[in-house]
Structure formats: C-alpha cells, structure tokens
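pipeline/complex-builder :: batch 7 item 3
reading input block
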Amino acid sequence: MTTKDLAGASIEVDGEGYLVDHKVWNRDIATAIAKEEGIDPLTDRHLEVIEFMRKEFDEKGAAPSIRRLNKLNVVPTKELYSLFPGGPAKKAAKIGGLGKPQGCI
Amino acid sequence: MSEQPEPIKKVSLIVSKGSLVDVYPALVMGNGARMEGMEASIFFTFFGLGALIKKTQNSLKVSTVGNPAMNMAMPMLKMPITMPFPTLLGAIPGVSNFATWMMKNEMENLDIPTVPEFLEMFTDAGGEVFACKLAMDMFKLTREDLCDQVSSVLTVGEFYEKSAGASIIFT
C-alpha cells in the first residue's frame, strides 16, 4: 500500500490508485482523481452517478454494473461512456473512491 | 527494467457459429474491450448471423450433442462436474431446450444480458456490429431481416479494412 496526496490530504491507495478505504472519500478527492483520469471538470452529473454507485456499494458490498445503472435508469449506457470516456466502470469506481470493479460485464 | 508491452487498442471479433455458447464469448469479450476503453467490433458470419436476425436472435440454443465437455454443466443440476453426459442423451427431444433454459437462468443470475440486450449494450458502449455479406446471400437474408444494432453489411475485404490496426480474434 502507498499513500498519495489528494486534495491536500495523504490518502492510502492501492497499486493502481484506487482508494483503499472508500469511507475517506469526499468530493474534493473525487475532483483530484478525476483530473488525473482526464475528466475535468467533474460535473454534478458525474457525481450523481458516482454517488449512486457509492450508495449501492454501501448497501450491497459491490458497485453496480453498467447494465444495472442502465436498467435502474440511473444513467443510460451511451451517456455513461461519454461521461467517463475510456473505461466507464473502472473510472467511475476510481473517482468514486471504490475498489477496482471485479465483474466482466 | 523490462519494457512494458504495448496495450491492445482495438479488437475485431469474428463469430461464425450460432449456438448460444458460440455467440456469448464474443459479446462478453467485445463488450469487455469497450469497458477497457478499446475500440471493438464483432463480425457475424455463417451461422453466427442467427444472433443478428430479428426472428431468431431470441431463440439461440445450447447444443447438447457432440460436446464431450457437457459434464461441465452438471453442477447446475447439483451433480458432480465429473459426471459424463453422453451425446446420445443430448439428442433426446427437449434436452437442448432444457439445457438452454438452464443456461439462460444461470446467466440471468450472473447479470448477463440476453443476446438482443447484449447487442444493444455493446453498441451503446460504442462497439460496432457487422454482418457478413456472403453469408447473408447464402442464407437469402436482407438488411431488413437483421436487428437495428447492425451498423453495416461487409464483404471480407471491407471487414479487413475496418480492422486496420486491430487484433483479430476468431471465437
């Protein structure tokens, strides 16, 4: 485990930069990670998706799949890909302070 | 220090067979490629076209004959994975339907979409779906027979042109 300076705080991250403890997350950390991932600015729409994912993670222990986000009308798949270009599930999880997604779909 | 290998940027998958288990791997791999930020396309040819035909794409079947690894499915019936499943049993009417039903249930439990929904998800993700022109001619199919997710009907040459720079994977 390593620590990383994010939004003025020293945060523990894994080898790929995912937060180790999702509870230390806040919007400033999200903005800092998003910038590194090439998403700038991080809009309310991004945060709406991320916060839903965090809520499901808290309740179920895993972030929702892209399919589930689409089915629950949180965000259509097309929009999700344009919000988080180049790997939406991974990027949204990373910015949201969650671990790397384990699903294949 | 060893040099980092170049990441894969683009994949072109080819599906030439039309059973349920022939079609899914390409959908999973293609969609997975988009999830990793790669460009992805799937070219359906010969019997693989069944996955694109509006009238048939919802009724692809699991084949229960000629597969010596059918024992792999035994745990779905709460039986040991080592239990053989002779191909003659697989030929009994209804067995393929039953296996298909069982497999579809299992997939739904794992949050795997149906074939039409998967094609929609893949194209919404920016993936491209192609149909083979030669196979369409052979099976007397027209563009109208195919689902909306098909972006074009291609000759082999056009498929290779579109696959420039891609890793081509024959599933």
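note: Chain B touches chain A at residues 28, 31-32, 34-37, 110-113, 121, 124-126 (CB under 8 Å).
queue -> next item
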